Predict the 3D structure of the following.
Amino acid sequence: ANAVQYAYRPFSNDSDMNLIDPRTYFWLRHFLYEVQEDASTHQGLQPDIALIVTWLETNSEVMYYARNNYCYRMPINVNNVDLSVAANAVFAMTRSLFIFDAKQWFTRDVQQVY
């Protein structure tokens, strides 16, 4: 559920969901352009993707932690998408499909980040 809550959603209006490390954006940009272009070919459809991030924190939480001297903080104060982290999360969700009842947890939102 946290993967859904903290997912990178580049087309969201919420800055806690749409901010990402510029280095991540650089390698994702062509994919994001394709998603946006694909959505624009379907009238009225808004682009909506969700990608698993490395750090399960929002930017608001990072700022709160910084102001209150928490020792646990994401480096450089901005989230990123790491393919090895995403691959491990997809692997864990796939294994969970065999162990747990998918009807209870494999919701449409989880499927979107999957």
